[in-house]
Amino acid sequence: MSLQDTMAQIASLQRAIQDQTRLINDFLKGNRDTMQLVRTELKGSTKGYDQLMVNSLSQVESSLASSLSSLQRAADALTQVRAV
């Protein structure tokens, strides 16, 4: 593999990371909107469904935040490789 091929592959990986980051951020926004809707619509439910749903959505948000962190580390590593 030539240096030019390697640089093209790095650029492609960086675009893929940017695309995934954008998708996760969009999903996070939708998830936050859903959490607010659940809080509003199910507030005070007698069986605690509102809290169960919000807890599940919060876990999704935590998982996605972890994914974003991993993607950022990967992007930083690619930037360092590209600088070499």
Radius of gyration: 19 Å
Encode the helix/strand succession as letters. Answer: HH
The best one-word shape is rod-shaped
Q: How many alpha or pi helices? A: 2
Helix content class: over 70%
Biggest sheet features: none
The fraction of residues assigned to DSSP E strands is under 5%
Q: Structural class per helix/strand content?
A: mainly alpha
Distance between the termini: 16 Å
Low-confidence stretches: none
Instruction: Round the mean pLDDT to the nearest integer and report it.
Output: 89
* DSSP strand tally: 0
Quick overview of this protein structure:
The protein is mostly helical. Helix content is 88%, strand content 0%.
Topology:
Layout: H1 3-41, H2 49-83
Describe the structure.
The chain has 84 residues and is mostly helical. Helix content is 88%, strand content 0%. The chain is built from 2 helices and no strands. The protein has helices at 3-41, 49-83. α1 runs antiparallel to α2 (49-83). It is rod-shaped. The model has no long low-confidence stretch (mean pLDDT 89).
